[in-house]
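Q: How would the structure tokens look for this protein?
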Amino acid sequence: MTENKKFYSREEAYRKALDYCAMQERCHQEVRDKLYYWGLHSEDVEALISQLITEGYLNEERFAIAFAGGKFRIIKYGRVKIKNELKLRKVSDYCIRQALAAIDEDDYLNTLNVLIDKKDRETRETNEYKRKNKLALYAIGRGFESELVWDVIGEKFGR
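A: Here is the predicted structure in token form.
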């Protein structure tokens, strides 16, 4: 089965890229991949990326902060998972640090507590050791730092 892939001129791709960036915040790699998909060559791709950055349509720090905020508030991801997701999108370390710093510490701890409480209500395990382990694995799997998770569990259920 063949795909009817359309190739665009540099001007057409620029207009489409403006719409693409206007829809939601994008990282450089997403736009780069889209431009290559549209059939542009590397010189044109990098020139358009530079133009979009200069014109303010593309800002990786803004993207990282919006991405981290959304993943934290909506999906309840922890910093570890957010950091890994941003690295997969080839976001710079500086932008990742800025995005993680934008997450309010009180909200972060409150979210972790709420997640652990909810999971505790759903867990049927009666063995205290196994129960704590299940809660910790759940929270760590959501991307929260293991040391922080164990501290919260220790405060809630005793060490």
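Residues 105-157 form one domain.

The mean pLDDT is 95.

Upvote if useful.
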